[in-house]
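Folded chain entry
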Amino acid sequence: IFATGMSNGGMMSWRLACEAPEIRAIAPVAASDNTRTCRPSRAVPVIEFHAVDDDHVPFNGGKGSMSLVQVDFNSVPASQAKWVALNRADPAPKRVLTVRGAHCDLHPAKSGGAAVELCVTDSGGHSWPGGGSQQGRKQPSTAISANDLMWSFFSSL
């Protein structure tokens, strides 16, 4: 069972990884990990997608200028660091994808651990990379397809 979602749905995928042992891997989109406690029963592979210019869930944390809730979100780097530690992944990331407008960095799994990957787009705001038009929001980045990359990640497990 894999979990993904965007925004609140992505935050739910983080929580499922913390609490549901049947979750094999997650792929949150435009969502940092705001779980207060997290004790997964085993390492859970993660591929995360986030735009640098997200104005709802800011890349560097805090309250987004367009956020609909009064929440100080954790930063994407803090979410990554948390899961690198939880998953016993290599703290030194390896750049595994570079395209115009996006890149992906992988923290490979160490023995008994699980990988943690982050794909960052330069634009697209609070949207699904490679997704369709967004009513009232910035258009998604077309530099990468979150669908394709997450399926490749999931199917490699």
